[in-house]
Amino acid sequence: MTGAVEAVIFDWGGTLTPWHTVDLREQWAHYTQVYDAGRADELAGLLLAAEEEAWRRARDHQRSGTLDDLLRSVGVEPSGERHEQALAAYHRFWEPHTYIDPDVPPLLAALRDRGVKVGVLSNTLWTREHHEEVFRRDGVLDLIDGAVYTCEIEWTKPHPEAFRAAMTALAVTDPARVVFVGDRPYDDVHGAKETGMRAVLVPHSAIPENQKGHVEGDPDAVVQRLADVLPVVDRWLGETVQA
Ligand SMILES: [Mg+2]
Fold first, then answer.
1. Residue-level pLDDT at 33
2. Ligand 1 centroid to residue 18 C-alpha, Å
3. If we measure between CA atoms, which residue out of 162, 133, 139 comes closest to residue 11?
4. Which end of the chain is more exposed for a tag (fewer CB within 10 A), N or C?
């Protein structure tokens, strides 16, 4: 007999970090004003359109993308001093929207105390390096056993391969013993359930209409704050399954 939960995997935006509605054109303007002030407005418009296309590809075909590909698609070379400075401006714009929910450090520590592995699976264009910097700043990097950022794989949530990649990162093999926690009924809940995991919904995000999917998964639990994930997992840990 073994415990019924081996791992809890979390989404990032709107889950581990609270949802903020961000002006997506403005984020690019912060980049382009540094990269090429003379074409700042035109390039910001092109990058916004390219990003919307990337999210559409993720929603409709679960194909992932990278920030570098996005920049190259509008003729921006994502290397060199000018790019590095522009990228720093872009990250500074995002910085206030990246802080971890204060419930997270004690929650992750409590899960690990119970012998439950902690994972992250994020649909993201940002690099692992940047995500890890953010987690390190907030003191949680060492509480994460494995993470998958979709810019590093071919697929995005809700494709089962994205969820299986996160299981591989945690060295767990039975999706029935994995819990996924996320804010999106399509990407997170539907995807996790299709993969055979249990799903917990944190329902506080204003998901843009053009990022919603065509179906919504049925969560096994809904929590109003992340601290409430722990009693839900404890209940499932109390169940036992035949080894
Ligand atoms: Mg999210």
1. 98
2. 9
3. 162
4. C
Output phi, psi for 179, to 5 deg.
Answer: -110, 135
Q: In whole angstroms, what separates CA 193 from the centre of its chain?
A: 17
Is it true that domain 2-18+99-241 has CATH number 3.40.50.2000?
no
Bond preceding residue 158 cis, omega within 30 of 0: yes
**pLDDT tens-digit readout, 150-179:** 999 999 999 999 999 999 999 999 999 999
For residues 82-91, one letter each, b for 16 or more C-beta atoms within 10 angstroms of the residue's C-beta and e for the rest, the string is ebeebbebbb
How much distance in Å is there from the Cα of 185 to the middle of ligand 1?
Answer: 10
Residues of the chain under the 50 pLDDT cut = 1-2, 243
Q: Is the pTM of this model over 0.90?
A: yes
The rounded Å distance from CA 42 to ligand 1 centre is 29
User: Which residues have CB under 8 Å from 206's CB, separation 6+?
Assistant: 19, 21
Residue 34 alpha carbon to ligand 1 centre in Å: 29
Q: How far is the CA of 202 from the centre of ligand 1 (A)?
A: 9
Rg, the chain, Cα only: 18
Per-domain residue ranges for the chain? 2-18+99-241, 24-96
Ligand 1 centroid from CA 183, angstroms: 5
